[in-house]
Amino acid sequence: MGSTTRMVSARERARAAAAAFRERERSLEAVAVAVEFFTAADHIARVFEVRDREVAAAERKAEQAAAVSVEAGDALVRQMLALGVPPAEVRARLGCSAAELRRAVASGTVTDGAPSAAVEDVSE
Questions:
Q1: Of 116, 43, 54, nearest in space to 85 by CA
Q2: Which residues contact 5 (CB under 8 A, 6 or more apart)?
Q3: Alpha carbon of 40 to those of 22, 28, 48, 52: distances in Å?
Q4: Which candidate in 53, 54, 80, 93 could, as Cys together with 85 as Cys, close a disulfide (CB 3.0–4.6 Å)?
Q5: Buried b (16+ CB within 10 A) or exposed e, 76-101
Q6: φ and ψ at residue 95, rounded to 5 degrees
Q7: Largest Cα–Cα distance in the chain?
Q8: What is the rounded CA–CA span in Å between residue 102 and residue 119?
C-alpha cells in the first residue's frame, strides 16, 4: 500500500505543479495583453501628436494667406480713397464697416506713398 500512497502523493504534486504552470501562463498572457494595450495607447498618442502638429501648421499657413488677402484688400481701399472716392461711398461699394475702413487706412500708406488725407474722414 505504500506505493499507492506515493502514487497519490505524486499525482497531487503533479496536479499542483500543473496548476501553478497554468497560473504562470495566465499571468504571462495578461502581461502580454497589457503590453499590447500600452503599445496601442502609445500609438494613439503619437497619431494625435502628428495631427496636432499638422493642424497647427495648417492654421499658420491659413493665417498667413488671410493676412496677405487682408493687406491686398486694405491696399485697394486706400487706393480708392487716394482717388478721391468719399469714405462713405467706399464703404457702400465694398460693403465694409467704418471700423474696417479705418483699419485699412491705418494699416499702410496710399499707393502713391503718401498717407491718405481721408484718414480723419473715414467715419463719414
A1: 116
A2: none
A3: 27, 18, 12, 18
A4: 80
A5: ebbbbbbeeeebeebbeeeebeeebb
A6: 70, 35
A7: 124
A8: 7
pLDDT, tens digit (0-9, with 9 covering 90-100), for 65-115: 999 999 999 999 999 999 999 999 999 999 999 999 999 999 886 544 444
**Cβ proximity of 124 and 90 under 8 Å:** no
Give the Cα separation of 44 and 49 in Å (integer): 9
AA identity, residue 32 = A
Q: What is the separation, in whole angstroms, between the first and last Cα of the chain?
A: 119
DSSP string of the chain, one letter each residue: -HHHHHHHHHHHHHHHHHHHHHHHHHHHHHHHHHHHHHHHHHHHHHHHHHHHHHHHHHHHHHHHHHHHHHHHHHHHHHHHHHTT--HHHHHHHHT--HHHHHHHHHTS--TTSSPPGGGTTTT-
Q: What single-letter amino acid sits at 56?
A: A
- Classify the phi-psi angles of 113: left when phi > 0, otherwise alpha if psi is within -120 to 50, otherwise beta: left
